[in-house]
Amino acid sequence: MEKLLENKEIRLRAPEPEDLELLYKWENDTGLWEYGNATAPYSRFSLKQYLTTSKQDIYADRQLRLMIGLMETEETIGMADLYDFDPFHRRAGVGILIDENRRNRGYGLQVLLLLEEYAFGFLSLHQLYAFIPEKNCASMRLFRNAGYYPAGKLYEWLSSGDIFEDVQVWQKIKQP
């Protein structure tokens, strides 16, 4: 029997102090800022504080960050977030980052399926959703392959200087 948050290839685990340099790399990659809410670089100090003070309790923090590790080598290849957790309406947003050198190998789909198992099974959530910029075809393909469907569009939602981009909302409802 497989454990929660892992399968034969990957494990989702809590961030450790040893993840500081990877978090620093990914959080400060300005090419990724347009997909999230970052507007300025993070210092190592602030990320170190996050690692030491985060409760890793989705009910207290209203979010949960998990690191994605390969089972065979224990190499950390990305991170996944459940964010905007709403226990009353039983929903959360989902975000996944796979390191650029590890993309297009099926890890994203495995991560998404493990997150769903955890969210729908263990947390008893009713739905998960993601905001995906329209130009991010790879993410839309990933979420479609995992059974999500486009549920709406937010016009001019993301800003990159004077250019605004539309975002699609993708959603998956727990099936009985």
Describe the protein's architecture and organization.
This protein is of the alpha+beta class. The protein has a domain at 10-124: Aminopeptidase (3-Layer(aba) Sandwich), CATH 3.40.630. It is built from five helices and seven strands; from the N terminus they run βαααβββαβαββ. Strands 1-2-3-4-5-7-6 form a seven-stranded mixed β-sheet. The relative contact order is 0.14.
Measured on Cα atoms, how large is the radius of gyration?
A: 16 Å
Regions with little confidence, pLDDT below 50 for 5+ residues: none
Q: How much beta, percentage-wise?
A: 25-35%
Shape: globular
In which order are the strands of the major sheet placed?
1-2-3-4-5-7-6
Reported by name, the CATH topology of the domain at 10-124 is Aminopeptidase
Distance between the termini: 22 Å
Give the mean pLDDT. Answer: 89
Structure annotation, total helices:
5
CATH class of the domain at 10-124: Alpha Beta
The run of helices and strands is EHHHEEEHEHEE
Number of strands: 7
- CATH superfamily membership of the domain at 10-124: Gcn5-related N-acetyltransferase (GNAT)
User: Which structural class is indicated by helix and strand composition?
Assistant: alpha+beta
Biggest β-sheet description:
7 strands, mixed
The appropriate CATH architecture of the domain at 10-124 is 3-Layer(aba) Sandwich
Q: Percent of residues in helical segments? A: 25-40%
